[in-house]
Every structure is written in structure tokens, then in C-alpha cells.
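Researcher: Here's a chain I'd like modeled. Treat it as a single chain, no partners, no ligands.
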Amino acid sequence: MFKNRVLLFHFITAMVVIIWGMTFVSTKVLLQHGLGPMDIMFYRFVVAYFCILMISHKRLWANTWKDEGMLMLAGLTGGTLYFIAENNALGISQASNVALLVCTTPIFTALLANRFFKEPLRKNMMIGSVIALIGVALVVFSGSVLLQINPLGDFLSIMAALMWAIYCLILKPLSNRYSTSFITRKVFLYSILSVMVYFIFDPLLTDMEILLNPTVVLNLLFLGIIASMLCFIAWNAAVKVLGPSRTANYIYVQPMSTLVLSSIILSEVITLTSLIGAACIIGGVYLAEKE
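Model: Modeled as a single isolated chain. C-alpha cells:
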């Protein structure tokens, strides 16, 4: 029974990162309609928060102020700081650089889990991570562009990866004391509250003509309900069952998902290099998950 439950959460986690791979296309559509990156993050989290509030509203606070502080930190790292770092990196560095460097998240997660939770650095996991990261490089570069170093942009990309790794580790102790829906709701709330500080310097877009555009509404609903509420609940539950390191390994699948969807919707060409990269990702993740 336990083995079947673990297999189920491996499948769920894979589906989550596939959906998150789709968000790049949805976000691109919203950018084309005039929304800024942080506008999109704010509105998708607002939609997600009010949706999850309907199923998780009885408990308001954590058991202790320390736990409440941990939930606030989860909202900062997994929401606001992650998106600020990634979005600003995309603004000053090549998208391929950002995609590759953000996929170092599983490596950061494994190292931090070893440092703070004494999780062993398994040989298969490290070798599999390297193979999968090579696959990510092949997918995002597709053999057509060269890595161009931009110190600030690359630093922000690595910070984004580190923020998500810290977020996954924060979930580990919290998941033993609180329900997944409660944790997820608090993460959304603190992300929304903290990003308001960002809007002091770069005001939130409030043009109702743009916000009520049917295409904008549909994409925000997808990002808010499916990619945020449902996927964050599933991801947080997976961290509880599989652990931070095993769950984070699936981040490698995300560029492959984006590749396929971009081919279907945006008519982007899938090259032989991309296919080899996809095979490396699948093989690397499989090897990393083996005992």
C-alpha cells in the first residue's frame, strides 16, 4: 500500500511540473496583452488564495509564532523572492541561461537537505542530477545558441533556484504539523502581502479593460486555479511523502514540458538536440530516484 502511495505521488509530481512547464506559454500570452511579470504573479496568487479559502478557512493561525514565521518565510521564498529573482533575471539575461540555472534547484535542495536534515547524498541521485542537467542544457539551447555570461542575470537565476530549494526544505517540518491546504493557503497569503512592497516601486497594473479581456481572464484562471492552487497543494503534499530532494528532481522535467507545448501551440521546431536532451532528462530523473 505504501509503495503504491509513493508511486502515485511520483506521478502527481511529474504532472505538476508538466503543468508548470505550460505556464511559460500562458505567461507569454499575458505579457503580450500588457501585464507585467509581477502583475501576473500577484493576480494568479489572489485567484489561488480565494479559491483555496473556500476549502481551508477554519484555522487562521499556526500553533506557534515560530511556525507562523516559517509559513511567512515559505511565502517569501516560494512566492515573492523566487518570482522577483527569476523575472528580473529574464529581463537582463538570456531566457536559456535562466532556464538552465533555475534547474539547479534539485542540486541545491539535496545539498541543503544533507546539511540541515542529514539526508544522505546518494550516488545515483548525484549522477542522475548531472545527466538530467545536461539534458536541460540540450533542451533549452537546442544546439543553436551559446551560453552568454551575464553576472547579475545569472546570479539572480541561481538565487531563484536557491529560493525554491529553501521553500521545499521549509515545507518538510511544517508538513508534519499542519494540513497541506493550510500551508498552501498561508504561502499564498504571505506571497500576496509581501509582493505589495514591490509595488511601491513598480505599481500594480489595474487597467480593467486589460484585466477583463476574455483571453487575460482565462489565462489568469488557469494560472491561479490549476497552476497555483492545485499544483501547489499537490507539490506540498509530494514533499511530505517523497521528501524535498526527490520531489525537487522533477524540476528537470519542466523545460521538456515547455518544449512540447511550445511546439504544439507556438509552432516552435523540436530539434534532434532537444530530443536527445529530453531522453537525458528522463533517464537522469529515473536514475536519481532509484535507491
